[in-house]
Amino acid sequence: MNMTNESTGSINGNVASELKANQLNVRSVVSVALALWLGLVFALGLRGAFIGSPGSPPLAIFLGLAIPLAVFFVAYFAWSAFRTFILSADLRLVAAMQGWRWAGLGFLSLYAHGVLPGLFALPAGLGDMAIGLTAPWIVLGLIHRPSFATSRRFVLWNSLGIIDLVVAVSMGTLCSGFIPGLAGNVTTSAMGRLPLVLIPAYLVPLFIMLHFTALSQARRLVHGR
């Protein structure tokens, strides 16, 4: 019996060690991927790769947003180790990172200075500020009550965060100038240049990934899968 228990304990220990090693490997891959992604966006931004032709939809920016999301979702559904990494991420950190969205105040400033159209800047800026400024309360809820991750408030907050980003991207596209007269003389063409291009091509998809991570964990906690 003792030999059996020792053998079982040894197997469990080996499995735990292997799982931990896999998680460390995935974390390293994710860290490198995030750094390379940021560097690529910055390099392309310096070359003006995201600047579209006047009167044309901002296709380059759309691709800069869509391709990272596509890679993320393919990895999530096709790579079990990555999915495990996402489902074990610290929700407190995931929610806290959304706090950076208080910087949506910058959109309002750019609107006031005539750099961005109000049709885009107001909903995008105010929506980001609402998510960013409420993030600390979400983090506190997770700290004091881990089951808060399954609450309607947590799910609603993350859902509204995604909706805000979808609205911002949609309005940014509509106000890019390819629909004459919609945004007046000011368009969202500035979003194709550094440093603003880092928002749609890096931060927006990253924030969507974080919201998806939170909602995926909430779903698993509720349904047990």
Outline the structure in words:
The protein is an all-alpha fold. It has one domain (2-223). 73% of the residues lie in helices and 0% in strands. The chain is built from eight helices and no strands. It is globular, with a radius of gyration of 21 Å.
* Poorly predicted regions: 6-13
Class by helix and strand content? mainly alpha
Sheet-strand content, in percent, reads: under 5%
What is the percent of helical residues? Answer: over 70%
Characterize the largest beta sheet: strand count, sense, and whether it forms a barrel: none
What value does the Rg take, in angstroms? 21 Å
When the domains are counted, the total is 1
Distance between the termini: 34 Å
Helix run count? 8
Number of distinct beta strands:
0
- Structural shape: globular
Order of helices and strands: HHHHHHHH
Determine the oligomeric state from the structure: single chain
Mean pLDDT: 91
Summarize the SSE layout with pairings:
Elements: H1 2-46, H2 59-78, H3 80-87, H4 91-97, H5 105-112, H6 118-144, H7 152-174, H8 198-223
Helix pairs in contact: 1-3, 2-3, 2-8, 4-6, 4-8, 5-6, 6-7, 7-8
What attributes does this structure have?
single chain, 225 residues, mainly alpha
Short description:
This protein has 225 residues and is an all-alpha fold. The protein is built from eight helices and no strands.
